[in-house]
Amino acid sequence: MERLELIGPPGVGKTTVMGALQQALLRQGRAVLSARWVPLVVKQEQQRAGLLSRRLESWFYGRQGLQRWMRHKYEKEMVRGEYKRLREAASPWPEFLAHGLENAGSTEVDPALRLERLLSFIRQVALAHAVDRLPGRELVLFDEGLAQRGVSLGQGSEPAVSQVYFRLMPLPKVVINVTAPTEVIHARLTQRNPAVQRFHAMVESARAISEDGCRMLAQRGAVVVRVDTGQRPREAVAKAAALIGKACAG
Question: Which CATH number fits domain 2-247: 3.40.50.300, 3.60.140.10, 3.40.50.740, 3.40.190.10?
Answer without folding.
Answer: 3.40.50.300
